Amino acid sequence: MRKTLFTTVILLAIGGYAFPQHISLEFPKEMIQKNDYGCPSLQIKDDTLFVCCADGIYCKDLASDSDWEPYAFQGYSLQSFARHEDALIAVGLEEDKGSEVFILKTDGDRMHTENITPSSMHNAGGYNTPLRFTPNPANPMSLALITKNGLYSTCDFGESWDNMKKISSFYGGGIVYNPSDTTELLSYGENISREGVVMRYVNFSYRDMRVVLEGRDAMSDFVIIPHNTNLRLFSSDEIICRSDDGGKTWEYTPLKNNMIRKLLFDADDNVMYAVGYFGRCIIEGDEENYYYFNVIYESRDDGSSWLPIFDGGRCEEQPFIYDAVLDHGSIYQFSSHGVFKVIVNKEKASVRNMTTENHGSSDVIYDLMGRRLIPPPSHGIYIRGGRKYVR
Question: pLDDT over 90 for what percent of the chain?
């Protein structure tokens, strides 16, 4: 592994520059899981933000900045979910038994919930192990899920599961598909020797494993750049690693005292973002107090160098960043302190605002009680553009 020289540049409003604002989206704190198992996720679709939490899935209309509303699977502590047409599938952990995994499924009737957990997932949760459904980009019915018990796959949206037990001594991490060849997927995390490893599968058959990180905590995220699949990056505590030869060799950039948790890529502008937090001792009068801050780094040279563009959200308790997504020039992040938005591209964010302001209300669908329906119903009575429709 080759080490590259890196100098952290602190930009705290020098020369008229100011960091973006840290905006709270007022997610109810009582909905955030209180145990140390798993990492709940968030998604954005059609201007709606979805959050998996201690009480199922909640959603927020970003166009109207509405209040948070329950969406599905209320009463269950969830980690992630996936959609296909009218069907929803979700994975979660028992609140009192952090290692106990369950999988739920529902169709257009959200009141009906079916438990489809395979018996082999018993005690499959692990400490800070993200349970994430990863859909195959070429087939939304095909999902992959990594647990402490191994890699699971389904080709029928959860009706049946195959377990690849090759990684029974594997912790943390996640799964990423190769954008240029969706028959290949990579699982990344930490092995029993505390080495950062990447395992490669083709058509869910194990092929090989590479140790890419030694003597550090588990890898927190891994991305393959779509327009150049030889360019790959992963993050861990205090470093970001980069490979331009498909993962054969790696060079790393140290980010001292920064806990990087998520890597995001803006394909339109070829810009990368790293989301995390760091700790800093601040002198206040005669006292020295230690605070934590959210931090966002930006790279415009394919991950070769990184500059801080955000430093805010000061708090006394160490945050744990569960997930983050990039959408229309804003980074939405879900942490142990709530859900927040940081605008990193004002031009894109303003274009989105103009689009939603000019978007006719005729595309918004409501039920007879005046509640917005997401997604549109497959059958029943609904209202759109002031008119009543029947399917």
Answer: 40
